From TrEMBL:
InterPro entries assigned to the protein according to its UniProt record, in alphabetical order: GSP17M-like_dom
Residue ranges annotated for the General stress protein 17M-like domain, each copy included: 4-52
Protein's UniProt name: General stress protein 17M-like domain-containing protein
Xref: Pfam families: YflT
Length: 177
């Protein structure tokens, strides 16, 4: 199975693309929509019959099953906050203890790794993962159409991949992969 993937800058364009793909014969189960968070995906889901995955949720789910040490968000380590301390990940909470100025609990994540793993788990091809991750981080929305296992013979592209690409182009895709 392979995907034709497009990156859209707006929710309107992504919604139009889903509708165009369905008009071209794609079923909701053949389409994937990936947005940055729930705020980004809520409208897409309400105006189409396609579920939109949120990358933030996928990262958390992927990391929970990942057994690669610090890539797991369940690992929360107390860290004494001192000037010059380089913390990776998010600051989650903190409290003062006698004898220490401040203790913080930090979640240590390799954001690129967990994001790449989450996108790969969704079926995004390895060569397109970085482009998709960067687009989503900048607020883009990914729409992917399952085109099966097909290849072009160099002639006019009348395949499902060609249909998906035509739909993406007509709806203002910022980039097609």
């Amino acid at each position: 199975m392979s995907y034709k993937i497009a990156i859209f800058d707006t929710q309107n364009d992504a919604i139009q693309a889903v509708q165009a793909l369905e008009s071209a014969g794609f079923t909701p189960t053949e389409l994937k929509v990936i947005a940055k968070n729930r705020d980004e995906s809520r409208r897409i889901e309400s105006e189409t019959d396609v579920h939109a995955d949120e990358l933030e949720d996928l990262q958390e789910t992927r990391a929970a099953y990942d057994e690669h040490g610090l890539g797991d968000p369940r690992i929360i380590a107390p860290v004494a906050v001192t000037p010059g301390l380089g913390m990776s990940g998010g600051f989650t909470s903190g409290m003062a203890f006698p004898g220490t100025p401040f203790i913080a609990a930090g979640v240590f994540l390799d954001d690129d790794t967990s994001t790449n793993s989450a996108l790969s788990d969704l079926g995004v091809p390895g060569g397109d993962v970085d482009k998709c991750r960067e687009a989503i981080a900048q607020g883009g929305i990914i729409v992917a159409a399952d085109i099966g296992n097909e290849s072009s013979d160099g002639g006019p592209d009348l395949s499902r991949g060609g249909e998906a690409e035509a739909a993406f182009r007509s709806c203002g895709a910022a980039r097609i992969l």
